[in-house]
Design goal:
This protein is mainly alpha-helical. The chain has one domain (3-559). It is built from 24 helices and two strands. The protein has helices at residues 7-23, 28-60, 71-75, 101-124, 129-148, 152-161, 163-173, 178-213, 226-235, 242-255, 265-271, 274-299, 301-304, 307-328, 333-353, 360-392, 408-422, 428-441, 447-454, 456-473, 482-491, 497-515, 521-525, 556-559, and strands spanning 82-88, 93-98. It has a two-stranded antiparallel ribbon. α10 packs antiparallel against α12, α12 runs antiparallel to α16 and α15 (333-353) packs across α18 (428-441). The model is unreliable at 72-76 and 535-560 (pLDDT under 50).
C-alpha cells in the first residue's frame, strides 16, 4: 500500500505542510494565501474521501468500517481509506490510520474552524501573522491525526503533540495574563498526560499477555491496535484494572473539561486571542470526546457497566448544571461562552455515559451529533465575540449594549446563533439534545431521573444564551451609560464582508445540519472502533478486529 495515496495520511500531511510553509512566510499576505491554499487542498481531499467512503459503503454496507485489509480494493482508485505500517514492531506499535464517516466529519470540523480562525487572524492584523497561521494549521494537523489514529500509542502522540502549538499561541499572542494562563494549561494537562501514559503502557502489557496466552487466536495482532484491543475487551480476554480506566478518564476530563478539572478554562479562554479560543473550545475539547469513543468505551465495558459508568453519569450531569448556572452569572461574553462549553461537554459526556440499556446506542449517536454542533456553535460564538471586542475595545457587558441598532447583519447573525444555542425545535442542537436525553431516559433504572435533571439544561441554556445576545446586541440597563455609548460609536457600521467570511461558514454548516441533520447519519451509526455494550440488545459485541457496531440508531432527522 503506497502511503503517498493514503487519504487519512494526506489529511494530516497537508495542514502540517501548510503550517510549516506559513511559518516561513515574511508577510501577512503571504501567510494568508498559504492558509487559503491549505484550506482548499484539505477541502478537496475531504470531498475525495467522501466519494471513496460512499463507494466503500455501496460495496460493504453503510455500517462497515474501512480497514487495511479491504479499503484498497474498495477504493476503486489509487486512494485508500486505511494504512497500516510497522512503526516499532518489536513493541507492537503501528502507524495505523483509518478514515471512516465519523473521522471524516471530525476532520471536516477541524478544517472549517481552523480556516475561520486563520481568517480572523488575517482580519485582526495580528503581530507576527506568519507564525500564528502556521501554528494554527499545525494544531489542525495534530487534531486530524488524532481523529484518524487507530493505534493507541499514535493516538497518545497526537493527543499530547497538539499542546505544543496551543501553548505557543496562548503564550505569545494572549492577553496581559497570558503567561499565567499558559502555565495553568500546561500544569493541568501534565496532570492528565502522565497518568494516561502509564495507562497506555498498562494496556500494552495486558494485551501482550493476551496475545502470548492464545497465539493461535491473536496471531498477527498488533499490541496497541485499537480495533484489536476492542475485540479483546469485548470477548472478555482483556480485563484491565479500574485504575487504568481512571488514568484515561482523568486525561479526557481535563481536556474536555469536566467539573472539577476545569480550573484552566476561565483564564485560558479569556486570555487567548479569540481565534485561538475558538480552536480550544470548538476543536481541542473534541479530542476528549473522541478519546472516550475509541479508548474508554471499547476497552472498559465491564467497568462502565458497573459503578464507574454511574460515576461518569453524575460527573457529567453536575458539569452540565454547574456550567449552565456559571455561564449565566458571567460579566463578560467570553465567560458566558466558556462556561457554556463546560455545560455542553457535560451533556456530551452524559450521552457517552449511557453505556448500558436499550437507549445507549441512541445516546452515543446524539453525543456525536452534539459534538459537531458544539464545535460549530462555540467557534462561531467566540469569533463573533472577538469581532465585537476588537471593534469596540471593550470586553464586558457593562460597557456594551445596543450594538444591534442600525446593524441588521449583526442582529441577524446574533439571533440565529442564539436560536441554535437555545436548541429550539428545528435546530440541529435540538436533535442532538433529544437523542441524548431520550437515550439516557431509556437506560437503566435511574435513566428517567437523570434525563429529567438533564432536561433542565434546556431552560438554563435559554438563560445564558439570551444573556449573551442581550448584553451585546440589545439595550440593557447599562446601554445608556457613556461607556456603552462610546463602545457603540467605536463599533462603527454593520458587519462587513470580511467579518461575514469569518463567522459565515460555521453558521452555514449549522443551518445545513438543522435543515438536514441526517447529513451525519452514517457518521453517527459507524463508531470508529467497535463497542461492546453489556446488556444492550441493540448492539452486538464485536468479535473481529475489522468489524463495526452494526446497531442502527434512531435517525437525527426524526428527532428534529
Amino acid at each position: 500500500m503506497d502511503s503517498a495515496f493514503s487519504l487519512p495520511t494526506l489529511l494530516v500531511i497537508v495542514p502540517a505542510a501548510g503550517g510549516l510553509i506559513a511559518l516561513s512566510m515574511l508577510t501577512r499576505r503571504a501567510a494568508a494565501v498559504t492558509s487559503l491554499v491549505t484550506f482548499a487542498l484539505q477541502a478537496a481531499l475531504l470531498v475525495t474521501a467522501l466519494v471513496k467512503l460512499d463507494d466503500f459503503a455501496a460495496r460493504f454496507g453503510t455500517t462497515a468500517s474501512p480497514s487495511c485489509d479491504v479499503s484498497s480494493s474498495a477504493s476503486g482508485s489509487r486512494f485508500v481509506l486505511a494504512q497500516c505500517s510497522d512503526w516499532f514492531p518489536q513493541w507492537g506499535i503501528q502507524y495505523h490510520v483509518v478514515l471512516g464517516y465519523g473521522s471524516l466529519a471530525l476532520v471536516a470540523l477541524v478544517t472549517l474552524v481552523t480556516a475561520g480562525a486563520a481568517a480572523f487572524a488575517w482580519w485582526a492584523d495580528r503581530e507576527r501573522p506568519a507564525p500564528m497561521h502556521g501554528l494554527l494549521w499545525i494544531t489542525a494537523a495534530c487534531l486530524s491525526g488524532l481523529f484518524v489514529a487507530r493505534d493507541l500509542v499514535l493516538f497518545y502522540v497526537f493527543f499530547e503533540l497538539m499542546l505544543v502549538p496551543l501553548l505557543l499561541l496562548v503564550g505569545v499572542w494572549g492577553g496581559t495574563q497570558r503567561i499565567r494562563a499558559t502555565m495553568t494549561m500546561f500544569i493541568y494537562t501534565l496532570l492528565g498526560s502522565l497518568p494516561m501514559l502509564v495507562g497506555v503502557i498498562a494496556v500494552g502489557v495486558a494485551a501482550n499477555d493476551v496475545i502470548a496466552g492464545d497465539p493461535d487466536r491473536w496471531a498477527g495482532t498488533s499490541t496497541f491496535s485499537l480495533p484489536a484491543l476492542s475485540s479483546m475487551a469485548g470477548s472478555g480476554a482483556l480485563d484491565l484494572s479500574s485504575w487504568v480506566l481512571v488514568a484515561f478518564l482523568l486525561a479526557f476530563a481535563i481536556k474536555a473539561p469536566l467539573l472539577p478539572f476545569h480550573g484552566w478554562l476561565p483564564l485560558a479562554y479569556r486570555q487567548a486571542p479569540a481565534e485561538v479560543t475558538a480552536v480550544l473550545s470548538g476543536l481541542v475539547s473534541k479530542a476528549a470526546f473522541f478519546g472516550m469513543l475509541v479508548v474508554v468505551l471499547p476497552l472498559f465495558p465491564s467497568q462502565l457497566a458497573g459503578g464507574w459508568g454511574t460515576a461518569l453519569t453524575w460527573l457529567a450531569l453536575v458539569s452540565l448544571i454547574y456550567g449552565s448556572l456559571a455561564a449565566f452569572r458571567q460579566p463578560d461574553p467570553r465567560g458566558v461562552v466558556a462556561y457554556s462549553s463546560l455545560a455542553q461537554m457535560g451533556l456530551i459526556f452524559l450521552g457517552l455515559s449511557a453505556f448500558t440499556g436499550i437507549g445507549s446506542a441512541q445516546a452515543t449517536a446524539g453525543a456525536y451529533l452534539q459534538t459537531i454542533n458544539h464545535g460549530l456553535v462555540s467557534a462561531a460564538a467566540f469569533l463573533l465575540v472577538g469581532i465585537v471586542e476588537l471593534r469596540t475595545g471593550e470586553a464586558t457587558f457593562a460597557r456594551m449594549g445596543g450594538l444591534a441598532t442600525g446593524r441588521a447583519r449583526l442582529a441577524s447573525i446574533g439571533m440565529l446563533l442564539t436560536l441554535i444555542m437555545l436548541a429550539v425545535p428545528g435546530a440541529s442542537t435540538f436533535a442532538g439534545e433529544l437523542l441524548i436525553l431520550g437515550g439516557v431516559f431509556r437506560g437503566d433504572v435511574s435513566g428517567p431521573l437523570v434525563a429529567s435533571i438533564g432536561s433542565l439544561a434546556v431552560v438554563l441554556a435559554a438563560m445564558y444564551a439570551l444573556r449573551l445576545i442581550a448584553g451585546i446586541a440589545f439595550s440593557d440597563r447599562d446601554s445608556t451609560s457613556s461607556d456603552a455609548a462610546t463602545a457603540t460609536e467605536r463599533f462603527g457600521g454593520d458587519l462587513g464582508w470580511r467579518e461575514l467570511l469569518i463567522v459565515g461558514p460555521a453558521l452555514a454548516a449549522l443551518v445545513a445540519l438543522s435543515v438536514w441533520p441526517n447529513l451525519l447519519h452514517r457518521a453517527m451509526n459507524q463508531p470508529p472502533v467497535a463497542i461492546s455494550r453489556p446488556g444492550d440488545p441493540l448492539v452486538a459485541a464485536s468479535s473481529s478486529s475489522t468489524s463495526s457496531d452494526t446497531a442502527e440508531t434512531p435517525s437525527a432527522e426524526d428527532a428534529s
